[in-house]
# Entry
Amino acid sequence: MMQGDQYSLKIKGTGFDIGDVEKIEFTVGNLSKTYPGQVVYDPSSEEFLFPLTQRETFGMCGRQPAEARIKFSSGNIQGAVIDPIDVIESISGKEID
# Structure
């Protein structure tokens, strides 16, 4: 991705039934968002959609670590590593209206 991009980052759900999930905290770099709420789940693609604004991506540069912390209805909490996100520096450095 490039600084200033604005879209939903697709994160593939793996190995668990979404019905067993109470909450998931997704973190990309220093930015955290939760499901349900800010992050939505697309059952047709089995992907979570992590929304990013231009301002948020301008705050990132280089390789950004990513993870998910899943709280299941049972009370168990499990971490999951997500592939790092490479963010390329924008030449313009400004938001587009």
